[in-house]
Amino acid sequence: MSGTSDEEEARRKGDDGPVVDQEQFSALLEDSIEDLYEHAPCGYLSTLLDGRIAKINATLVGWLGYAREDLLGHKYFSDLLTVGGRLYHETHFAPLLRMQGEVSGIALELKAADGSRLPVLVTSTVKTGSDGQPLLIRTTVFDARDRRAYETELLRARQEADEERERYKRLATTLQRTLLPPALANVPGLDVSAHYHIASADEVGGDFYDLFPLAAGTWGLFLGDVCGKGAAAAAVTSLARYTLRAAAVYDPDPVAVLGNLNTVLNHEYSGTDPRFCTVIFGLLTPDHDRGGFHITLAGGGHPPALLMRADGTTDYLPTPGGQLIGALPDAQIATTSVHLDAGDTLLLHTDGLTEAHSNAGADDGERYGDDALLDFARALAPTTASDTIGAIRGLLKTFGSGVDDDTAVLAIHVPRPDSGDQQ
Fold first, then answer.
1. pLDDT exceeds 80 at position 420
2. 359 touches 370 (CB < 8 A)
3. What is the model's pLDDT at position 150?
4. What is the dihedral of CA 95, 99, 102, 103, to 10 degrees?
5. What is the pTM assigned to this prediction?
6. What does the pLDDT look like over 300-311, one tens digit per residue?
7. How many C-beta atoms lie closer than 10 Å to residue 146's C-beta?
8. Contacts 24+ apart (CB under 8 A), 272-275
9. Which terminus of the chain, N or C, has less C-beta within 10 A?
10. Cα separation of 120 and 131, whole Å?
């Protein structure tokens, strides 16, 4: 017959833990109130209403490094504070305590006997007698050294992050400048103006444009938008810009130029991370018989150009059917040709303009849109290149943070004879 020995009865064993002596366990539960007060994990002190220390536990005495007899009846709570802490105590802490009867979680610094500083969180409560009259102030002090160190580390990390973000902004701005022409070519008999609006200084956009000379008497121009943002988009932007210029020198036919770019992008980015862009490319040729310029535009999925005539009539020059450049091995490229007479202005833009929110708080469906831009251009016409770009810059400012994508605009204008508006 099995039985339980006295020794086994005196022991308690948990399911997974070690055997615990019952007497020792009971002794742990019988700590005196005085011992709990003296050796609590926080500091306790009681002061008279004038702040004189009447009682203080061993924990706080040990933190401060004083002898208990040097504090009791001799020092005031404010004597334990730093100069700044005493000022705050007199102007805020004490008045608030008198008014409310309790102040919680106030960050202060205590001055130890050796002159060191101890960051703490302080909670004080006014204790009253049975008649409701205040008798003394009881204060709990929590060691905040670990918290202060944590906050300091957080602040340091934030400062480093801010510095890194600023360095990244400078890098992004510098990189963005390298992707745009330092200056547009000066075309005799043509007024040219352009603008690049950066939606976010934190990311490099993928918009690009250029105007450059080709064979004698001809110029090439392009404006495009690479999908995505950041370093990957910047790499595609750089490749697209230089490919367009090189292809135009080899064969300036707009369809051939965009066809070459499509081949390069599709070959380079046909793997798991495909990259493509929308582009409009134009070939400018002076018309010596009629005056003005003849321009042939080829579009690869890009928003159509706007033509503002000298008589005020304005409309889009669509290139329907043009496909994204780089997305397919053989992209369809659409073309259109037009004659620019004296007083006419042609505007090329990226979709950052038409897809901007008309106000910063608009929903996704409330975009500026193609129709609004057409009405805006009709109100401008007839106009010059510089006036057109100036007006669009003003329009972009009215959108504020509603412009969430970079915007590039390029305008060319044939000045009227003796009008004084030639660049």
1. no
2. no
3. 73
4. -40
5. 0.61
6. 999 999 999 999
7. 9
8. 273/232, 274/326, 274/327, 275/226, 275/227, 275/228, 275/232, 275/233, 275/236, 275/326
9. N
10. 33
Residues 6+ apart with CB under 8 A from 192: 184, 185, 186, 211, 385, 410, 411, 412, 413, 423
Radius of gyration of the chain (CA): 39
pLDDT surpasses 60 at 275: yes
Q: Give the pair of three-digit tokens for residue 280.
A: 């409009």
CA dihedral 61, 63, 67, 72 (to 10 degrees): -40
Whether residue 11 has pLDDT greater than 60: no
Average pLDDT along the chain: 85
* CB-facing half-sphere around the CA of 416: CA atoms within 13 A: 8
Average pLDDT for 258-285? 89
b/e for 287-299, b at 16 or more Cβ within 10 A?
eeeeebbebbbbb
> What are 217's two structure tokens?
């008497």
Structural contact between residues 310 and 342, judged by C-beta atoms closer than 8 angstroms: yes
Cα(371)–Cα(349) distance, integer angstroms: 14
53-57, 254-258, 269-273, 317-321 — which is least confidently predicted? 269-273
Q: Higher confidence at residue 147 or residue 325?
A: 325
pLDDT greater than 70 at residue 286: yes
Q: 409: buried, middle or exposed (CB in 10 Å: 19+, 13-18, 0-12)?
A: buried
